Amino acid sequence: MRKNSKITAVATMAVLLVLSSFGFIAAEKSNPAMIKPPKPMIKPEVISKVKPEYPAEAKKKGLEGVVTLAIMVDAKGKVTELKVKSSSGIEAMDKAAIKAGWATNYKPAIQEGQPVATWVVYDVKFALDDEPCPGEGDSKYPAMDDFVAVERMPELIHQVEPEYPAKAKKQGIEGTVIIKSLIDKEGNTVKAIVAKSSGTASLDDAAQKAAMNYRYKPALQNEQPVAIWVAFSVNFTLAEKSSSKGDSG
Question: CATH code for 138-247?
């Protein structure tokens, strides 16, 4: 009888040891603090890239935007997958960013001394301030947001009435477009952009097209003509067809 009780006690202890070892393994798996953390990764490094081409139509309309790309870089530093994580809202910009993203080459990520594949996320910014103005580099023209002290702002001497888009008129669409124009020393409009959209592309285009044909008496600084940016609104109203009102700025 004693022999049997001893055998039973030994068997019970063996079972307890097995169960406790399983419990330890389960605890190790469920407790992150007990899991050995992975070694830090050295992120991929850009070694060559292509500047995205600013879509001509977007530039003409003064449109800006940011495209967020997610790119899979393999262990050889090649782009193998690309996704638009956040769109600019302008299809042409998204396509330009994607094209440039595929053309980017990387030094691959390194983890534990070995190259590894990983995702990288970055923004592709389309901003008109980053684009050269006509004549930029010879100090001929100021940047759009530069303050230029003058005694006299440009005076409008020739105004072209913007054509009211037939479809917008038919649908009863009205709106106001804010235009920023660069006026040179001769009073010519060098550049006109849509600073604030009417919300209707055809109205924006009509206003911009008309603005490019405006002519001015140039601004004066120390009695000398200078180039400067001006801002004005172009109003499309069905009662009056359309009119423009200039505000210097």
Answer: 3.30.2420.10
For domain 41-129, give its CATH number from 3.30.930.10, 3.30.2420.10, 3.40.50.1100, 3.40.50.150.
3.30.2420.10
DSSP H or E stretch at residue 17: helix 2-30
Alpha carbon distance 26, 35 (integer Å): 11
3-state secondary structure of 170: helix
Count CA atoms closer than 13 A to 229's CA, side-chain side: 19
Check: CB of residue 215 under 8 Å from CB of residue 158. Answer: yes
Q: In CATH terms, are 41-129 and 138-247 the same topology?
A: yes
pLDDT tens digits for range 119-159: 999 899 888 766 555 544 446 788 888 888 899 999 999 99
- Boundaries of every domain in the chain: 2-34, 41-129, 138-247
Query: What is the distance between the alpha carbons of residues 166 and 247, in angstroms, rounded to a whole number?
Result: 27
Between the alpha carbon of residue 247 and those of residues 153, 175, 233, the distances in Å are 10, 17, 7
Q: How far apart are CA 58 and CA 212, in angstroms?
A: 16
Q: How far apart are CA 112 and CA 159, in angstroms?
A: 68
* Contacts for 82-87: CB closer than 8 Å, 24+ residues apart: 85/121
Question: Which residues have CB under 8 Å from 69's CB, separation 6+?
Answer: 82, 83, 84, 85, 97, 98, 101, 121, 122, 123, 124
Q: For 60-89, write each residue's pLDDT tens digit.
A: 777 888 899 999 999 999 999 999 999 888
CA–CA separation, 132 and 213 (whole Å):
21
Half-sphere exposure of 99 (CA within 13 A, CB side): 11
